[in-house]
Amino acid sequence: MRHFDFSPLYRSTVGFDRLFSMLDNANGDVPSYPPYNIERTGENAYRITMAVAGFSEKDLSLEAREGTLLIKGERAPEGEDREVLYRGIASRAFERRFQLADFVEVKGASLENGLLHIDLEREIPDAMKPRKIEIAAAGADARQIEGEVN
Asked: Which residue range or ranges hold the SHSP domain (predicted)?
């Protein structure tokens, strides 16, 4: 049984905190096929790179729904006229799910040299962004309210 320590990644990522917690708490083995990387490419930008050698665009499907990114790969069966003597390149079907953090959206995907790149961006709504509140200097624009005291 393998255990991966994701604690160093907590310090360097913003959008995938829940994902790493879920992987830490998962019972059993973490699926290892296909292998993937999660990179931080900017302050609010991320990229998932997945090794999908042998799969074409038509063999892959991506779906983002309700905070979950689902990636499926399924190749059509190879012709029976071929006899494979050694199979070192995996071509089995797979399904990989990623829980996306709040406000993380998929911006695009590309397949290049056997690697599937999925670009993500965290877009926090303006209403939730921190804002600076000006403090007025006392005496400069201070107004005094005068009233009768009984």
From this structure: 27-138
Residue 145 domain-assigned?
no
Strands (E), 76-129: 94-99, 104-112, 115-122
Instruction: Enumerate residues 6+ apart whose C-beta is below 8 A from 89.
Output: 53, 54
At 13, list the tokens: 């990522």
- The residue range of the domain holding 50 is 7-125
Q: How many domains does the chain have?
A: 1
User: What is the model's pLDDT at position 12?
Assistant: 47
Tens digit of pLDDT for each residue in 17-57?
A: 555 555 555 544 556 788 898 888 888 889 999 998 888 89
For residue 119, pLDDT over 90 is answered with yes
Q: Do residues 59 and 75 make contact, with C-beta atoms less than 8 angstroms apart?
A: yes
Residue 118 lies in a domain: yes
Rounded alpha-carbon distances, angstroms, from residue 6 to 39, 43, 52, 145, 147: 13, 20, 23, 59, 64
Q: What is the pLDDT of residue 10?
A: 52
